[in-house]
Amino acid sequence: MRRAVVAANWKMHGSRTMVREYLSGLRGHALEHDRVQLVLCPPMVYLPALGGGLEPSLQAGLGAQDCSSESDDGAYTGEVSARMLADMGCKYVIVGHSERRERCYEDDARVAAKFLAAQSAGLTPILCVGETAEERDAGRAEQAVSRQFEAVIERAGAAGFHAALLAYEPVWAIGTGRSATPEIAQSMHALLRAALARRDAQTASKLRILYGGSVKTGNAASLFSQAEIDGALVGGASLVPEDLLAIAAAAAAGTD
Ligand code: PEP
To answer: Model-level pTM greater than 0.85?
Structure first.
C-alpha cells in the first residue's frame, strides 16, 4: 500500500483573512493519517500564519510553490532558497509546475537544479510534469512527460526519488475544469513509473505519483480508484477547506 498524498496548491491566492477562515474550516477535522498525508502550499508570505495555526492533530505538512535553484545565500534578488523554506517549517516544495515552466521560462535543467536544491535542504520536492494540449494532439504526450522526468532522473539518479513525489499534471487540464479521464491519468502514471523501474524497481514501486488537473470533489473518487494514482495536487478546489478535506478523504478511501 502506498500512502496517498493530497497537496493543496493555492497558487497566487490568499490574504490574512483567508488564512484565518481556512484554518477555522480545517479545525476539528481528522484524516486517516495512515492512509493519507495532507500538504498545504500557500503563497510563501502566508506560510508562517498558515503553518502556525494548523492543529497538530491534522498532521498536515507545509509546502512552498517554488524555491530558488541556488542553494547558497547570495545576490539573488527576489529569490527564496530551499534552506530558508525549511527554516520556516516547510517540509515540501513544488518544482516544475507548468505555470512556472511556461510563464517564468523554467527549462528542464532549471527544474532539475531546483529539485536537487530542495533535497539538499531536506525538503521533499513535488516534481510536476505534464504535456500541453498541442503535444497531446500531436501524439507526443508520452515523449514530453518522459523528457521532463528523465531530465531530473539524470541529475538526481533514480535514488533521488526515494524522498520525492511526482505529479502528473497535463497542462490542458489545469484550471480548465476538464480533468484527464481516470484511464488517461492511469496510463500516464504507469508510463512514468515504468521509466523509473527500468533503473530502480524498488524505488519505482514506492514512488507516490499524484494527479493534478481540475480535481474536484465530484471526480476525485474515480481518479483515486486507479491503482497508479496515489493522490492529487489540487489547485482551485483546494481554496475551499471543506472540498480539500473531502478530496483527501476520497484519497484515503481509494488507497488499497
Ligand atoms: C494546479 O495548480 O497544480 C492544479 C492542478 O490546478 P487545478 O486543480 O485548479 O486544475
So the answer is: yes
